[in-house]
Amino acid sequence: MNVAGVVLAAGGSTRFGRPKQLLDWNGIPMVAHVADVALAAELSPVVVVLGHSAEEIQAALAGRPVRIATNWRWEEGLSTSVQTGLGALPPDTDAAIFLQCDQPLITPDLLRRLVTRFQETGAPIVCLVYESRRASPTLFARPLFRELAGVTGDQGGRALILRHPQSVETVEVDDPDLLADVDTPEEYERLRARYGAPPPAASLLAPVRHLIVDMDGVLWRGDQPMPGLGDFFATLRALEIRFVLATNNASKRPDEYREKLARFGVEVPLEAILTSAQATAEYLASLAPPGTPVYAIGGSGVRHALTEKGFILAEEGARYVVVGWDPDLHWQKMAKAALLIQRGAGFIGTNPDTTYPTPAGLVPGNGSNLAVLELTTGVKPVVIGKPEPWLYRAAMARMGATPETTAALGDRLDTDILGGRRAGLRTILVLSGISTPEDLARSPVRPDLVCADIGELARLWREAR
C-alpha cells in the first residue's frame, strides 16, 4: 500500500506571534523536524503544504526529499491546505496521513502504527486517541479524498470523523503530551523543557544494540587508522553491539575494505561491510531481472556489485545508467551516459557526496558528476547512498535491527547525520573527518551526540553500560 504524508504548515501562527514552523526543536526548525518524522516512518511521498512565509520556511526544508505544495489561499482556513495537500498526491496513493507542523512529539513509530491499523482493518479513517480524545495525525483512505476535499472554512478532517463515526479506527497512546500541539509560547517552553533537550550520552547510548558506521573519516583518514581503532571495535564486541560498516564510497569492493582493516589489525566479516554500490545493485535487482544490460561509471566496486547480481555491463542497449565515483572518469564516459539517459535509460546514482577527500584536500565527488548529468539531460537521478534511506534499510536488514535500537555514526553532517535522522535513528557525529565544529555551529542538521573521535565514543559507551 502507498501511504503518503501531508504536513500542514501554511498557517500564519497569529495566536503565537511568530511562525511556529521555524521554532527550534533540538537544533532544527520544527517543520523540518516533523518532516523528518514523516520521512523516517517511510511515508511516501511526504508533501509539505506552505502558505504564510513560504519562501523562508521552504529554505528550512532544504536537502529533504519532500514535495512542496503552496497554498496561496491559506488565510481562508485549514480546509484550503487540506485541498492543496490532496492535489499534490500521486494517483496511486492509497491513503494519506495528515500531520500538524506544530506537534513535535509525534514519532515515526506512532505513524507506523496508524499505517498498520489501516492495513489490518481497511478502515477509511484511523486516528490517534488518548482516553477517548481523538487527535491528529489522522489517516484518511483514498475513497474519502473527494469528500475531504469538499470541506470548507477552517475545518479539516475532524468534519469527516464526525460524519462517519462508525468508520473510525483508533490507535491508543499512553501519554497525552505525544498529541500536544504548540499553541502558545508557554506550551512551547513547557514541551521543550521536558522533551527538547538532547539526552546525555549515557541515556542516548545505553539502548543502542546496532550501529551503522561510516568508514573514511571515522575509522581512518587516507591510509592512517584513527587513534583507538582497535579499542573501538573491542568495545563494540564486549558490549555485544552488532555493526555494519556502510560507506557511500562505491569505488572499492567489500573485500578491499576488509583487507584495509586487517592491515590496521582489525578483523571483520565480509557481511559486516556494505557499500553504496552493493545497495545500488540490490535496489536495481528489485527493478530488473539478471541479464539486464547496464552502463556503469565507477570503480571496481560498482562493476563487481552489478555483475554479482547478474547484470550485464554494456554500453549499447543499456536499460539503466549507474553512476558512482570514478577515479578514471573522462568526458567520453559522461557523454555516453548522457546520451543513454536521454534515450530513456534509468538514471541511478550510488551516492550524492559532492566532494571526495584526498590527502591534498577535497576534490569533486560523485554528487558533482550526478549534477552535470542532471543539468545535461534534465533527468533527476534516483540516489541510493546517504542521506537517502536505501543504504540504512539495507544495513538494518543485515543486522535484523529496528530504528529504535540503531544509531548512525559518521563524520559528515550532510550525509551521515542527515540520513540517520531521516531514517529515525540516533545520530553520532565524530569531528575527525569532513565536518568541523564551525560547520556544526551553522548547520540546521543536529546530531544527538558529538565526539572528537571514536576513542572518545568508546569511552562514553563503556561508561554508559
Strand content: 15-25%
The 3D shape can be described as globular
Query: Which CATH class of the largest domain is shown?
Result: Alpha Beta
The tally of beta strands, per DSSP, is: 24
Class by alpha and beta content: alpha/beta
Under the CATH scheme, the architecture of the largest domain is Alpha-Beta Complex
Q: Main β-sheet: number of strands, strand sense, barrel status?
A: 7 strands, mixed
Can you tell me the number of structural domains? 3
- By DSSP (H or I, 4+ residues per run), the number of helices equals 18
N- to C-terminal distance: 41 Å
Q: What gyration radius follows from the Cα positions, in whole Å?
A: 23 Å
Which topology of the largest domain does CATH recognise? Answer: Spore Coat Polysaccharide Biosynthesis Protein SpsA, Chain A
Query: What would you give as the CATH superfamily of the largest domain?
Result: Spore Coat Polysaccharide Biosynthesis Protein SpsA, Chain A
Note poorly predicted spans: none
Mean pLDDT: 91
Q: How do the strands of the widest beta sheet line up side by side?
A: 5-4-1-6-8-7-9
Structural key phrases:
single chain; 465 residues; alpha/beta; Spore Coat Polysaccharide Biosynthesis Protein SpsA, Chain A; Rossmann fold; six-stranded parallel sheet; globular
Describe, in short, the structure shown.
The chain is of the alpha/beta class and 465 residues long. Helices cover 37% and strands 22% of the residues.
